[in-house]
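User: Show me sequence and structure for the first protein, then do the same for the second.

Assistant: Starting with the first protein.
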Amino acid sequence: MLVKLNNNIIKELKKQKREKSYLLFLDNLKIIKDALSIGLNPIYILTIDEKLLNSEFDNYKGKIFLIDKKSLEQLSDSKTPYGVLCIIEYHPNTLIKPNTNFLVLDGLQDPGNVGSLIRTAAACGFNYVYLIESVKVTNSKVIRSSVGTIFNINIIETNRKEFIKKVSEWNIKLLKADMKGTNIFKFSNNEQIGIVIGNEGQGVSKELSDLCKLTVSIPMKNKVESLNASVSGSIIMYEISKNNFDNN
């Protein structure tokens, strides 16, 4: 029989959640399993009913505790949590040089956009995503909309000044989208490249824009002038990486 988690510990977890520490509060069973499958070590696995846990959780019995439904809902960001919450300490990646194509999110604040772009980056083999003064990767909506792919690729959070310094040293081409750029469907590139997606309202910052040696446009009809950031980024990443997929 599982032991109920101490109320003082619950209060401390609520405090840490409010303070936006680097703790992940995972309330989606698939995402929890993905996190555990790559070796991330949970601090606590909390459940309102141990019957909700299957054999996959047998290795973590010393960290599994019961919790009342109200407390679980307060720690979860889902309106209707499944009934299991996994709390994991997340260690952000350092500012390292990419060895694949990569994605740069410059000042994005919509967690849905950021999560969706991370998911597409993973699908396209863009194994590095740099969050430049953007919403935190630990944001629950980012995790949910990425469907757990934050655990599969390198997510690096940094500021604009540090990133600009590093990318200049790396001497890797950056590409941005602009209406005056080359049609993305006529664009060709055989070198490593970084795709820069700018803030939802302001676009790419001047500092990063000045570093972009390449510019592409996405053709549109019916007087449509722009697309959602995650849609634009996804189109560009898939077009850039289309030759890297198995034709079968």
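Switching to the second protein now.
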Amino acid sequence: MTPRIKICCIASVDEARMAIDAGASALGLVSRMPSGPGVIDEAAIAAIADRVPPPIATFLLTCEQEASAIIAQQRRCRTNTIQICDRLERGTYRELRDALPGIAIVQVVHVRGEESIDEARRVAEEVDAILLDSGNQSLAVKELGGTGRTHDWTISARIREAISVPLFLAGGLNAQNVAEAIRIVQPFGLDLCSSVRTNGALDEVKLRAFIAAATSA
């Protein structure tokens, strides 16, 4: 099965339309983050999400770590999916589900070593999908995505084998390495941002080249 394609850091309705026309099935809308590219304000997120037709998924990327704050943010932004980019520290996934029926929950796990396998296994029981990225939550200024770095895909493959929910792969993917990433990890979906942009703007040529490479793989 060809992996689903999620284009992150969408900044406008025009970029959303370009990504969908090229074959993306999900869009990432980045709210306030401690670092990284693609941040837009919540009003812009809501405006873009409102214009995206079903069945395209709209992911709200949040750095919030408290269930009540995530619930409030989703209600302001009105996306159909929440992507929790940091660990949920206060409140529970059950609170999210009860408050936001019909909204999918995706938890990011930043792959830094063997310990990521156990972390993914634990949270997979609570969410609709896991997204593996290459950030670092231990830094003074957290990296929660958008690093442009790959991580150890053999660990990603072991995580995919250990969980029963869909797995998205992010981190440094481009048209040159996507076939190898698919071969090793066999993910449900692929998530990318910087490799399909030029000077920060979504680049249709790069976007279509990536999707062609992923499809042919």
